[in-house]
């Protein structure tokens, strides 16, 4: 049940705090018009049509003008929240915004909680929970890829997929439950082979959606690319070349970089987060050893590893050891032979190349980080990796939200149990229980099943005024 003050008329600034050309204050709820009228000097609003704009003044209790403003009015259900709403555009002074907010509160409005406008839009049926969450992702999106996936979720494709799966399962559950009604007679309305194949079909879709999360999450946060290798391989030089900025200290002293240095660039709409690390070697220096430990950790967490070695000094065994270590991590990688500008004998390069080819399918490139030779090619290669990753997904709907992932995982487990139950010919009611559990988990994703806690958790992460 909704508590009464959950439906107070609420108010909040919709634009950031600070000086700006114009600031917008939003008011939503049953009393929106009554409240604004108390501080409004301008044309009568009672008969004004929805989606109209009005020029006038905001005045305080002494009839002093606080600002000249524009009002946009929205009449229920034709507004974002589907309630009566008004937006006041003031001059963008934090002082004016604060004054107008206090006047509105004095007139009977309550300051909105973070996300409360969107929460109302959800509770009033404008969209489901996945779409409401996508509003926050859309606001946070900083690259075209992040924007694309947020937009896709806002438009409801993931929601429709989940709803479609639920409908199939509801049908499935009703067949099983029908059998329960006739349990004395030991009939099977539901053809077991058909049930099994439907179940495994649904499980497959859930699994593929779940699998897309790793990619979706990376798109949202930026693809982590760890730059690793021995001291002096040129890792920091490469970081700087990629970022086009003197971000990390470069020197000919082995062990220059000790802590992790991270920064981002966007290549054709995809954000990459490059991580420069301490050179990996055995060391008795405690601080350096911690750095080496962190480098190894970053390697594990990366989506792509760039293993850099100096083509002039590296021996083949050392590179092979590195390949071995990386392949054990099961992370996509590129071997980069650096300082190609210094290589005097061409034959040594060919020897390295031949050895690498023979030894593994390891992808490698030769670059000069210092002269920025083939750094652009490296960027194209990174972009290609990400595009291949997306193409390899078995779904064109990409999950980006940890909460969705969590419930997909629970749904997948429940589906496995239902499948197991059918295969081992467990009684229908036990199988039906697992199917109902799956329905529940999928329902929590779209908000067909929710609790106040869950909603509070989701909307409190939104910004003020959203
Ligand atoms: N000034 C302003 N800009 C904004 C928003 C807002 O609330 N205010 N939005 C909010 O975050 C987004 C737009 N979302 C909105 C969605 C629906 C309606 C609305 O008035 N819908 C009516 C009328 C539709 C129509 O005329 O076709 C309706 O659905 O009945 C308004 C904004 C982005 N920009
Ligand atoms: N000739 C040449 N020198 C390079 C190249 N890349 C890096 N160097 C030099 O190699 C030395 C080490 O470079 P760094 O970028 O500090 O190497 P690093 O791998 O970050 O080293 P640590 O942080 O100590 O592990 C510096 O003197 C660089 O100028 C290159 O492509 N060609
Ligand atoms: K160095
Ligand atoms: Mg370094």
TrEMBL record:
Q: What is its EC number?
A: 3.6.-.-
Chief location of this protein within or outside the cell? cytoplasm
Q: What class of enzyme is it?
A: hydrolase
One Pfam match: MMR_HSR1
Q: What does the entry list under GO cellular component?
A: cytosol
Q: Fill in the subunit field for this protein.
A: Homodimer. Heterotetramer of two MnmE and two MnmG subunits.
* Molecular function terms from GO: GTP binding; GTPase activity; identical protein binding; metal ion binding
Instruction: Kindly indicate whether the keyword Hydrolase belongs to this entry.
Output: yes
Gene3D superfamilies in the record: P-loop containing nucleotide triphosphate hydrolases, Probable tRNA modification gtpase trme, domain 1, tRNA modification GTPase MnmE domain 2
What are the protein's UniProt keywords?
Answer: Cytoplasm, GTP-binding, Hydrolase, Magnesium, Metal-binding, Nucleotide-binding, Potassium, tRNA processing
Residues reported to bind K(+): 232, 251, 253, 256
The keyword Cytoplasm is annotated on this UniProt entry: yes
Q: How is the cofactor bound?
A: Binds 1 potassium ion per subunit.
Q: Which gene encodes it?
A: mnmE
Q: Which residues bind (6S)-5-formyl-5,6,7,8-tetrahydrofolate?
A: 26, 87, 126, 466
Q: Which GO terms describe its biological process?
A: tRNA methylation; tRNA wobble uridine modification
What residues bind GTP, as annotated?
A: 232-237, 251-257, 276-279
> Briefly, what is this protein's role?
Exhibits a very high intrinsic GTPase hydrolysis rate. Involved in the addition of a carboxymethylaminomethyl (cmnm) group at the wobble position (U34) of certain tRNAs, forming tRNA-cmnm(5)s(2)U34.
Xref: CDD domains: trmE, TrmE_N
- Family label: Belongs to the TRAFAC class TrmE-Era-EngA-EngB-Septin-like GTPase superfamily. TrmE GTPase family.
TrmE-type G domain mapped to chain residues: 222-387
Q: Which residues bind Mg(2+)?
A: 236, 257
Give its localization. Cytoplasm
Recorded superkingdom: Bacteria
Under the heading SUPFAM superfamilies, the entry gives: P-loop containing nucleoside triphosphate hydrolases
Required co-factors = K(+)
- The name under which this protein is listed is tRNA modification GTPase MnmE
């Amino acid at each position: 049940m909704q508590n009464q003050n959950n439906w107070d008329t609420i108010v909040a600034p919709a634009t950031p705090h600070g000086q700006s050309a114009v600031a917008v204050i939003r008011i939503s709820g049953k009393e929106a018009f009554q409240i604004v009228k108390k501080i409004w000097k301008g044309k009568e609003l009672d008969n004004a049509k929805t989606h109209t704009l009005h020029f006038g003044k905001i005045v305080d209790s002494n009839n002093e003008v606080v600002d000249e403003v524009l009002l946009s009015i929205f009449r229920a259900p034709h507004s974002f929240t589907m309630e009566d709403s008004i937006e006041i555009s003031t001059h963008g002074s934090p002082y004016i915004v604060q004054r107008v907010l206090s006047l509105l509160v004095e007139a009977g409005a309550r300051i909105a909680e973070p996300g409360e406008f969107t929460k109302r839009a959800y509770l009033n049926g404008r969209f489901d929970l996945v779409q409401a969450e996508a509003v926050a992702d859309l606001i946070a999106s900083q690259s075209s890829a992040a924007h694309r996936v947020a937009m896709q979720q806002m438009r409801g494709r993931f929601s429709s997929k989940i709803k479609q799966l639920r409908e199939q399962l509801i049908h499935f559950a009703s067949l099983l439950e029908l059998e329960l009604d006739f349990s004395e007679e030991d009939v099977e309305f539901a053809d077991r082979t058909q049930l099994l194949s439907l179940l495994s079909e649904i499980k497959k879709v859930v699994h593929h959606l779940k699998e897309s999360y790793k990619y979706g999450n990376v798109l949202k946060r930026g693809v982590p690319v760890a730059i690793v290798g021995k001291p002096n391989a040129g890792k920091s030089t490469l970081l700087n070349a990629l970022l086009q900025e003197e971000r990390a200290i470069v020197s000919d002293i082995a062990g220059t970089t000790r802590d992790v240095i991270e920064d981002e660039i966007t290549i054709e709409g995809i954000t990459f987060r490059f991580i420069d690390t301490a050179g990996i070697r055995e060391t008795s220096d405690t601080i350096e050893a911690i750095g080496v430990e962190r480098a190894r950790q970053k390697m594990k967490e990366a989506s792509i590893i760039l293993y850099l070695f100096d083509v002039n000094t590296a021996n083949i065994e050392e590179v092979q050891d590195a390949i071995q270590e990386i392949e054990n991590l099961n992370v996509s990688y590129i071997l980069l032979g650096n300082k190609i500008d210094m290589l005097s004998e061409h034959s040594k390069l060919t020897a390295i190349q031949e050895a690498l080819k023979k030894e593994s399918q390891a992808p490698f490139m030769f670059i000069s980080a210092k002269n920025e030779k083939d750094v652009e090619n490296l960027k194209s290669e990174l972009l290609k990796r990400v595009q291949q990753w997306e193409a390899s997904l078995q779904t064109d709907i990409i999950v980006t939200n940890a909460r969705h992932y969590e419930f997909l995982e629970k749904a997948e487990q429940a589906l496995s149990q239902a499948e197991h139950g059918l295969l081992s010919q467990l009684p229908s009611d036990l199988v039906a229980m697992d199917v109902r559990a799956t329905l529940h988990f999928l329902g929590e994703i779209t908000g067909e099943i929710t609790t106040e806690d869950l909603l509070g958790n989701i909307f409190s992460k939104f910004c003020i005024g959203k």
